[in-house]
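Hi all, posting the design record for the shared folder.

TITLE: backbone redesign
STEP: 1 of 1
STRUCTURE INPUT:
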């Protein structure tokens, strides 16, 4: 009789990764981050469990988009009051709160349920190169979002 493998909570180890967003494409970077948060890069992946790792993103203000997206891509939020819709462009939000751009992109790629909300808390985004998570001994993870372009 075959049985489906289910990882136990104690058998799961959660690592910390640092990703540098400088010069990276927003969407391709967000998909890689979402896969790591979800745990899809591990053999112990289970869709209904939190098997993912913690991700620290630094240099969020240096993420790039292609084409005219910096002036045409809109971010909307609503205060909940009548007439409370606020919109701003990618360039304006990047100047004001660059962390929110990556957070919104990754959150949209996570499940829309309690598991997705739990996974989202494992994402830490910082505008500059410094982060306060040195005690967790994070590993540096390089993601190449621009294939064919070598430094």
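Okay, here is what came back for every position:
SEQUENCE:
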């Amino acid at each position: 009789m075959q049985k489906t493998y289910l990882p136990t909570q104690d058998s799961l180890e959660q690592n910390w990764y640092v990703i540098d967003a400088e010069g990276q494409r927003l969407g391709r970077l967000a998909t890689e981050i979402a896969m790591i948060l979800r745990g899809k890069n591990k053999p112990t992946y289970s869709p209904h469990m939190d098997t993912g790792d913690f991700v620290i993103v630094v240099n969020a203000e240096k993420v790039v988009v292609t084409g005219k997206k910096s002036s045409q891509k809109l971010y909307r939020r609503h205060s909940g009051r009548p007439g409370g819709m606020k919109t701003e462009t990618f360039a304006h939000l990047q100047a004001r709160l660059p962390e929110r751009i990556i957070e919104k992109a990754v959150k949209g790629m996570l499940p829309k349920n309690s598991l997705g909300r739990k996974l989202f808390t494992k994402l830490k985004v910082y505008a500059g190169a410094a982060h306060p998570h040195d005690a967790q001994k994070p590993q540096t993870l390089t993601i190449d979002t621009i294939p064919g372009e070598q430094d």
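COMMENT: The mean pLDDT is 93.
Let me know if anyone wants the other runs.
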